[in-house]
């Protein structure tokens, strides 16, 4: 694969059309190719059997096709989750998780190798940002999971390693392809974009009218604490973030999810639950409480179960919809915030 060649899995349909017309081929061929690439998930041009051999050779002269390469997989004891490490074409690696729920199967997808946001609780950002993933590399994770499990992925959560809104263009292209009829046709409401709070991108996302589920990693109910846990808060403090979330809910009609990882003695006190209830008062939203996953390097210690229940009770009494997230695949560390890149650089 030469660096001058374009990865067709990275292109959306209009850009595929430009590619095909550039080869002097009728535009409708782009749609046919899109179905091979995004619906059937082929790994080579040779498999595109309704395109002539001559055309496939011309495509191969100008393009390449990334494809999922599973490096390792670990199945949780209860069989409800599988964690994958995918090897990328340059030797980097990303983790993804397949989760079976009663209501369908979800893929938790990484959007970057590493992350530059430096949240205090998170293992994904420990080594900083290595590089962005392309939209095709995000798509490959879903295809790889489907091919390995033989099951259809019906939901996607962008909660793997990386900050999706810090890799905004590629993330949007990925969503465009996975929701398309020529792709996996997953409804926008079954796609969750999780962010630590990049306000301008949240506002832009609302304007896209994609009806995506927005999840915001809140973790603190006031700025002083949030500045230390989620450092992007210094740039986009809670007042701006919550206003953007209220507008997102207003513009899309979609309930915003707030992720709140409970850490013993840090953000799990009763008065903090009260502050949180006041912050979210009257918003179309939902709070997901997660007993934090321990991360030794970060000194993160999860709250005790009784404290989680107490915190939940305060929110409920103040009319906030709240759930405690079931931990899937805890025995394989498959839970969010535990995804790392583990292959050594080439
Ligand atoms: C790894 S992030 C990726 C998506 C995006 N960058 C974000 O922050 O929302 C996914 C979720 O995992 C959470 N998370 C990170 N470390 C965690 C930990 N130790 N325990 C529980 N959740 C954690 C994040 O705050 C976020 O809600
Ligand atoms: S929580 Fe999200 S934004 Fe923060 S370091 Fe981890 S991956 Fe990055």
Describe the structure.
By secondary structure, the protein is an alpha/beta fold. It folds into two domains: 6-64, Orthogonal Bundle (DNA polymerase, domain 1); 70-332, TIM Barrel, CATH 3.20.20.70. It contains ten helices and 14 strands. It has a ten-stranded mixed sheet with strand order 3-4-5-6-9-10-11-12-13-14. Helix 1 (13-22) crosses helix 2, helix 4 (135-149) crosses helix 5 and helix 9 (270-280) runs parallel beside helix 10 (305-317). The longest helix has 15 residues, at 135-149. The protein is elongated. It starts with 5 loop residues before the first strand and ends in a 22-residue tail after the last strand. It binds S-adenosylmethionine and iron/sulfur cluster (SF4). Residues 119, 121-122, 124, 159, 163, 194-196, 217, 259, 261, 290, 292-293, 295, 300, 336-337 line the site of S-adenosylmethionine. Specifically methylates position 2 of adenine 2503 in 23S rRNA and position 2 of adenine 37 in tRNAs. S-adenosyl-L-methionine binds at residues 162-163, 194, 217-219, 293. It is found in: Cytoplasm. GO terms for molecular function: 4 iron, 4 sulfur cluster binding; metal ion binding; rRNA (adenine(2503)-C2-)-methyltransferase activity; rRNA binding; tRNA (adenine(37)-C2)-methyltransferase activity; tRNA binding. Residues 101-331 form the Radical SAM core domain.
